[in-house]
Request: fold
Amino acid sequence: MTPTDPMTQQGNVTSGPAPAEVGQGPAPLHPQGRIWAWLNRDLLLGLGVVALAAFFFIGALRIRISPSYAHIGPRFFPFLVSTGLGACGIGLVAQGLRQLKARAVPTGGEAAEPPINWVSVALAATAVVVYILLLDRAGFIVASTVLFSLAAASFGARRYGRAVLVGFILSFTAYWAFTQWLGLRLPAGIMRPILLWLGGS
Amino acid sequence: METLGMLLDGFSVALTLENLLWALVGVTLGTIVGILPGIGPALTVALLLPVTFGRDPIGSFIMFAGIYYGGMYGGSTTAILLNTPGESASIITALEGNIMARMGRGGAALATAAIGSFVAGTLATIGLTFLAPALVQVALKFGPADYFALMVLAFTTVTSLLGSSLLRGMTSLFFGMALGLVGIDLQTGQARYTLGMLEMLDGIDVVIVAIGLFAVGEALYAASRHGRVASDVIPVKDSIWMTKEDWRRSVGPWLRGALLGFPMGALPAGGAEIPTFLSYSLERRLSRHKDEFGKGAIEGVAGPEAANNAAAAGVLVPLLTLGLPTSATAAIMLAAFQQFGLNPGPLLFQNRPDLVWGLIASLYIGNAMLLVLNLPLVGLWVRLLSIPAPYLYGGILVFAALGTYSLNHSWVDLATLFLVGIVGFIMRRCDFPVAPAIIGLILGPLAEQQLRRALAISQGDYSVFFTRPISATLLSIAFVALVGPAVARFISGRRRRAGAAVA
Reply:
């Protein structure tokens, strides 16, 4: 492989079973990846699923039923579903406990998965949250440009100026196409004067 | 004969300039999203739903069908040249096809995949044309109890056949069904799980969940692997025209793949993965070049690609005749029908023959378009793979947010999108299949309706599900599908242990 522009470089090639570690980008390997395996994935997931099932089960108890309705009412199916979900959660917990007892390596894709790049995930997630906060205040074009640029940065884009420019062009085009030709309404926000001047809305 | 007449009427609908244009837009978009990693036909249809709202349903569905078929074609290109299958049905293609590409036979692999997809897609569409009207006659006899049993069957087969573990599939399914509970109960008007929010009364939109799981979840997942794993595109060096030898070795796998794929797709079992696995092992057994398997055997690309396209067409049979989606894309298509106030099933064939048959006719046209679009122009599509990952995922997130916001112009939807995205990331990372959740979300409320209707008719007597022959049969099959694999594993495990003890 020839050295590539960091823009296009997505990392190294994994040819063998071991994930290649790449010393590129703002993402050094984090030891947290190991914590996942240590805490046992299935046990944690199972507990989460049980909690969710409990939420839906208790919620089902609070659904009001009218005494005049003779047949199975609005509670029946929620009970069915939450019981099923709970059973799945207990199954996962049991599986996790068995793995802990056997000190087994987690099954499934985890063994083959490289450790999570938390920096990138956090940045990408932040991008979405910032978008939600900005959309109504600053308008679609600004919010989308920020979302695009932050997401691009989380994937290792280094030429920030270019990422912002590409994001802006994409967002502007999308806004124009969707509002002018497809008849959708999108918030113009602080771009309104410019859009009006251009003959848009 | 009646069917042929209907099909001809369908062609008169599909061949209008406007609908041809929709088909072209659909297959082009489908090819693009099939090729681009991280985005697939289910997500694309979900994103386009708000745009088609209030427009002509025929054109919209012709476009959606084009996206669906096009995604299958495009997925094979990515699998062959990038070794990261664009969608799960292309996993097997990636196996042999990528090795072929590495050996400088990428062109032949792309050609056998494209022509095989065309052959199998057309054969399967013929199958759909004749099977659908017959199945509609059967479906007319279905009562609420039978529909409920059918949905139970779909739930069990989808979860036991998709993904690596039954438990994970079931968890995903029940999670989807739980999300489906949110909102107003249609029969009694009671609010359920709305947490006091007005926005939740309409329930959680399947479109938002699909976008959240497929776009946001996928982007976060890709971000989590950023800098850890990577892939490079293998350039196509050889001609995309196959040699005589290639043709000779491809024709058999194409036909067998179509024969395997269509019925398996048409069964409520659904999914396009299983037939590709079956086709691969069948071709390996039949091939005179067994030694080449694992080293770039063309049969190993031709068969599974044919099977996956045939299965994709097969999935449309239960969707159109019973309203039963068995894949993520089919689930979104059902959501599209609901958006237009249409209910797939026997009544749709009666009330909107123009739509149903126009759609089926467009599949023939779309397949032909895809062959033309994919073979000579493959070099153009391959260049899509050079879009840098940062821009690709940035763009996916922008359109995901745009598609979600344009549904109701509500920030609650965007917050839901974000939360579902986080869940999608966890599911993807921890090996939970996503499709059962989406199928559970859209089928759950329908299953509840049929269940309550059936019990209302029977005055609360649960035995209806076992006394009605159709329902009893379907439930028994569901039971076998659920327990069968576990029993088979248990028996083969015992046999192996017994064999080990003897040895």
Notes: The longest helix of chain A spans residues 76-102.
